């Protein structure tokens, strides 16, 4: 469950129809009918289960209850706790918050000449390169290779939006699409990152919730957190530290606990350094969290009574371990907690677990738990 969902769950539940149920509506209609019948005729009437009038009332109650549901749904869409989709975007409009439609991945491209030249060679803004898969990265600014030099590195951005364009490994973008005299080679020197898909409802709801923090220059930690997450929807967690007065240390991670590269960190720093976001007296640094490495080494056992589904349980245990790894790297500063790993493995169907590592470790608030290796042994069946 996301952080914002947990936060909003603490707010009171609201019903715009006084928590009416279908049974309540049916009973109210039957009571109203019998009361009116007695008022008009002077006689009492009992509507048995098979009474035609009761069946008609029940059919009408179904339609009326459906209307109640529409009313309740419409009312709840004006509340952040329940809102989603276009309704959520309209709540955002009240605070001038828009859904992020996605970001393009960026990468550092190195252009290399065939040899030293007597004059400057210009790499124009918009120069394109590709990995040969029909996806292009183009330079964001003009770069120059000075006389006597043979290389220059410049930031390039993908021509398509989305997280699927992250992960081009160094050296894979190596085909120059825009010909430039004397340029013989191009290649990316880092992994493409920063690409994100259309912002999901949880992220948008969190930005709306944090929006009041943005009304003043980003002195409060929540304000810095808001602006960092607002820059790119692939940013999933932010930690803001003030190690000493007027110094702000910001660490952030991307989807699935991915670490930002230096290019993205510098872009975020430039974005929040705007005079409308950062106090002039604050010295701000932005980067990835440090890594707190851990290994997983364990043996688990299954009850003999579960022997017929042992293969399924083994598969579920592997899924549980992977889920634990994802959980550990979802939040900066989350302590390495083997107890949670044990609970997930037992919930997956194991009888018991012997953990060699990890051991509990309280990691710094600016660090991220980083799984290095795993050794998972199935110890076999044991009597219940």
TrEMBL record:
InterPro entries: Barrel_Baseplate_J-like (IPR006949), Baseplate_assembly_J_pred (IPR014507), Baseplate_J_M (IPR058531), Phage_Baseplate_Assmbl_Protein (IPR052399). It comes from the Bacteria. Residues 217-286 form the Baseplate J-like central domain. Residues 113-195 form the Baseplate protein J-like barrel domain. PANTHER family: PHAGE-LIKE ELEMENT PBSX PROTEIN XKDT, PROTEIN JAYE-RELATED. This is Phage-related baseplate assembly protein.
